[in-house]
Design a protein that fits this description.
This protein has about 150 residues and is of the alpha/beta class. It has one domain: 2,3-Dihydroxybiphenyl 1,2-Dioxygenase, domain 1 (Roll). The chain has a 4-stranded mixed beta sheet, covered by helices on one side. Helix 1 runs antiparallel to helix 3. The relative contact order is 0.17.
Length: about 150
């Protein structure tokens, strides 16, 4: 646990989950997360706020408190996907699966130059896990996308 929290990136996701303590352990096992700290409600034991580092980014996490935040199960799903760039998408997808994630899309090469796959974690959040395999210009990406749409 890091006792000084001076470094925050310009944008950090804040996830609401049911059972944040279990979620933290899942993210450690699935994505190699490192916990910075957690604030625990002494009466309920719920986590009001925790911070993780996943691949150099800060991810904030809390137990669901419906007046303030709602977990995907309460909302009936999630409209947001988190994109995680990694050196080896196949290896991390397998690691996430072994930790309890559900594979939504196995890794495959994409028109935009990434090898991508997606998982849903046991807490309802969806993760696009990707690695860059080719530099593709926006113009070439547009051309490839249009060609793909015609098929």
């Amino acid at each position: 646990m890091n006792e000084t929290m001076n470094d925050y990136p310009p944008l950090s996701p804040a996830l609401a989950v049911r059972d944040a303590a279990k979620a933290i352990e899942f993210y450690k096992a699935a994505f190699g997360a490192v916990e910075r700290f957690r604030l625990v409600d002494p009466e309920s034991g719920k986590i009001g706020h925790a911070e993780l580092i996943i691949n150099g980014s800060v991810v904030m996490l809390a137990d669901e408190y419906p007046a303030y935040n709602k977990a995907p199960q309460t909302l009936g799903g999630t409209p947001v996907k988190l994109s995680l760039m990694v050196p080896n998408v196949d290896a991390l997808m397998e690691q996430a699966k072994q930790a309890g994630a559900t594979v939504l899309m196995p890794p495959q090469d994409q028109f935009y130059g990434h090898r991508s796959g997606s998982v849903q974690d046991p807490f309802g959040h969806q993760w696009m896990i990707q690695q860059e395999i080719e530099k593709v210009t926006p113009a070439e990406m547009q051309r490839r996308w249009e060609a793909m749409l015609k098929k």
